[in-house]
Amino acid sequence: MGEARTRTGASADGLAPAGSPMPEAGVEAEVAKLLPFLAPAARADLQAEAVRHVLALTGSGPGRALLAGQAALLRALVELAAAAAPAPARDAARALVNLAAEPGLHDPLLEAEPALPARLLGRALDPEWPWAEEAAAVLANLSREPAPCDALMAALAAEEPGGPGLERLVHALCTPDYNPRAPLHYLGPVLSNLSQRPAARAFLLDRERCVVQRLLPLAQFPDSSVRRGGVVGTLRNCCFEHRHHEWLLGPQVDILPFLLLPLAGPEDFSEEEMERLPVDLQYLPPDKQREPDADIRKMLVEAVMLLTATAAGRQQVRRQGAYLILRELHSWEPEPDVQGACEKLIQVLIGDEPEPGMENLLEVQVPEDVERRLRQLDHQEQGQLEGPAPEPQAEGATPT
C-alpha cells in the first residue's frame, strides 16, 4: 500500500473550457512567431491572442511535446501566468496546468524557470489573486513527482513572513472564502502530494499545531471531490506514521468517526449494534448517502487499514464498531477494487491476532520469495477484478 498522491492530473478542461487544438502542420514555425507577442511589452490584445494559441497547443500530446523544447516560450508563459492585468494570466496558467499534467514535461518546465514552484505558491496563497485556483492546479500536477515536490517543499520552507509555508497552505485550505475569487480546491491535492514527505507529515502530526483536527471536517466537504480527495489522501498518508496511531485514535483527534462516516449508509442497526458505534455514527438519517467517489472510498478504507497496523490500533478500531460499517459497505459496494480493500480490512478485524513479535504489521519483515508471491497473487486478483484490458484509445488533451 503506497502513499497517496493526486489520483489524476488536473487539466485546464477541469477549470474552464480550453481552446480548440491547432493543426499540427507548421506548428513549430507558429511557435517561433508567437514568442515576440508573449513579451511583457507586447500589445495586450496580441499578447492575449498569442497565449490562446499556446493554450490550444497544450490541448494535444504533440503540441505539448513541441512546447517542451521551447525554453524561452515556457519562461514567457510563467511570467505571464504571474503577471497582473491586463496580462492574460488566466490562460497562461491554464496552459501550465496542461503542461504540468504530463510528468515528462516537469523537467523542461523547471529548467526553463527553476523558481516556478515558489512563484506559483505565492500566487496560490495570495488571497486577492483571481487565478489562484489555476496556480494551485499547476502545483497539484507538479507535486505528483519527486523533484518538483521537493522544490515546492523548499519554497514552503522559505515562506517565513506570514508564518511557515505549510501553515499558510493549511490555513488557506481550511478557511472558507480565504480568497473570495478562487475556491482553492486544488490545494487539497497539493497537500496530499506534500504529505508523502516525512517533513510534511511531521508538521501535520505536530500535536501542538492541531493541523489534523482542522482537516478532518473537510473529509466530507460537499462542494468538491477534488478537495475531499486531497484531504482524505493527506489523512491516509498521515496514518502511515504508526507511532501516532494512539494519538490519532484517542480523544484528542478521534479520527476514526471521520473516516467511517463517509462510508456509512442509512442502515438501521439493532440497539445492541448501535451502542457499539461512536455517537456520530448512530441513528443516521434515512437519506444518508455514502461518499460517491470510489477512489475516495478506497482511500478511506485504506486509512482505517493502516490504523490497524498495531495491536492497540486494532483493538480501538474493533471497539468503535468499525466492522459494522464495513460489513454494510461491503454489501453495498459496487466497485470491485473497493470491495476487495474492504474484504482485507474485515479479515484483519475478525481474524486472529498475529504471533508475538509480529504485532506491528507495518514493521513485519516479509521474506523476499513470499513478497514476490504475494505481489503475483495481488496482480492476478487485480486482473480478475478489472477484466480484459480496454482497447487502446486516441490520446486526449490531458488527464481529467
What distinguishing features does this structure have?
disordered C terminus; mainly alpha; 400 residues; 23 helices
Please, could you describe this protein's structure?
With 400 residues, this protein is mostly helical. It is built from 23 helices and no strands. Helix 21 (322-332) packs antiparallel against helix 22 (336-350). The longest helix is centred in the C-terminal third of the chain and has 19 residues, at 368-386. It is elongated, with a radius of gyration of 23 Å. The chain starts with 11 loop residues before the first helix and ends in a 14-residue tail after the last helix.
> What is the strand tally?
0
Beginning-to-end CA distance, first to last residue: 24 Å
Helix and strand string, N-terminal first?
HHHHHHHHHHHHHHHHHHHHHHH
β-sheet strand percentage: under 5%
Oligomer: single chain
State the shape.
elongated
**Rg of Cα set:** 23 Å
Tell me briefly what this model is.
This protein is 56% helix and 0% strand. It is mainly α and 400 residues long.
Task: Tell me the layout of helices and strands.
Elements lengths: L11 H4 L11 H8 L9 H14 L3 H8 L2 H11 L7 H12 L5 H7 L3 H9 L7 H11 L3 H12 L7 H10 L12 H8 L3 H7 L6 H5 L9 H14 L6 H5 L5 H6 L10 H6 L17 H14 L3 H9 L2 H11 L3 H15 L17 H19 L14
Helix pairs in contact: 3-6, 5-6, 5-7, 6-9, 8-9, 9-12, 12-15, 15-19, 19-22, 21-22
